[in-house]
Amino acid sequence: MRPPVAHHPARGASRRPSRILIVEDEKRLAVSLAKGLTAEGYAVDVVHDGMEGLHRAGEGAYDLVILDIMLPGLNGYRVCAALRAAGHDVPILMLTAKDGEYDEAEGLDTGADDYLTKPFSYVVLVARVKALLRRRAQGGGASPVHVHGDLKVDTAARRVFLGEDEVTLTAKEFAVLEQLVVRAGQVVSKAEILEHVWDFAYEGDPNIVEVYVSALRRKLRAELIRTVRGAGYRLEAGR
C-alpha cells in the first residue's frame, strides 16, 4: 500500500523540499514518476488506490497531489471533491487516460487545479508541477487587493469576494481570474492567459482557457467576463 520512496532534498537546498503525493494505480508509472521527481529534489510518497490517497492527502502534509482519475476503491474525481469539501486547498494535478472537454470540465468542477492526459511528456509534467508549486508559494507574498465593482480579488490571501459572499476557486481558476482582474476593462488574449497561467511548456489544447473561463462564469456571474470574438476576454464592470 505504501511502497517506500527515498526523500532526498535538492543539493545545496537550505529549505525543506516540497512534498508530493502520487496517487496512481499503474505501479510502474507511479514508481517511474516518483524516481524522476525525487531526482528533481522533491520528497515523494506513492499510494495506489483512492481511499488510501484520500487518507494520506487529508493529513495535510503535502504541497502537491498528483492524482489519477481511474483508481480502485475511490476514483480521482471523488478523492478531489472530498478533499475540497474538507477544506484542503493543496494543488491537485489530475492524470487520466481519458480525453475530451467533458472529462476535463468534470475534473475542474471537483476542484482540480490542472489536468494532464496520458500519454504525456515527463518534461511537461515537471513544468506543470513547478508552476503549481510556484503559484502556491507566491500566494503568501505581498500583493494588492483588486476591487472591480462588487468583485474583490485579494491576491495576497488568494481570496475572492462577490459582494459580501466569498467565492471558492481552484488555484488555476484563481490564476486565470487574476490575469483578467489586473487588466480589468482591457482585452486579454487566450495566448496571454496560456503564457502566464500554463507556462511555455503547455502542449495541450488552447481551448483549455475556455473551460476555465466557463467555470469562472458559473462561480461568479456570466456577464462579468465578456468574450471579445477573435481577441480574447475582458472583465466587465461589476454591479
TrEMBL record:
<feature type="domain" description="OmpR/PhoB-type">
    <location>
        <begin position="143"/>
        <end position="237"/>
    </location>
</feature>
<keyword id="KW-0597">Phosphoprotein</keyword>
<dbReference type="InterPro" id="IPR039420">
    <property type="entry name" value="WalR-like"/>
</dbReference>
<protein>
    <submittedName>
        <fullName>Response regulator transcription factor</fullName>
    </submittedName>
</protein>
<feature type="domain" description="Response regulatory">
    <location>
        <begin position="19"/>
        <end position="133"/>
    </location>
</feature>
<dbReference type="InterPro" id="IPR011006">
    <property type="entry name" value="CheY-like_superfamily"/>
</dbReference>
<feature type="modified residue" description="4-aspartylphosphate">
    <location>
        <position position="68"/>
    </location>
</feature>
<dbReference type="InterPro" id="IPR016032">
    <property type="entry name" value="Sig_transdc_resp-reg_C-effctor"/>
</dbReference>
<dbReference type="Pfam" id="PF00072">
    <property type="entry name" value="Response_reg"/>
</dbReference>
<dbReference type="InterPro" id="IPR001867">
    <property type="entry name" value="OmpR/PhoB-type_DNA-bd"/>
</dbReference>
<dbReference type="InterPro" id="IPR001789">
    <property type="entry name" value="Sig_transdc_resp-reg_receiver"/>
</dbReference>
<keyword id="KW-0238">DNA-binding</keyword>
<dbReference type="InterPro" id="IPR036388">
    <property type="entry name" value="WH-like_DNA-bd_sf"/>
</dbReference>
<dbReference type="Pfam" id="PF00486">
    <property type="entry name" value="Trans_reg_C"/>
</dbReference>
<feature type="DNA-binding region" description="OmpR/PhoB-type">
    <location>
        <begin position="143"/>
        <end position="237"/>
    </location>
</feature>
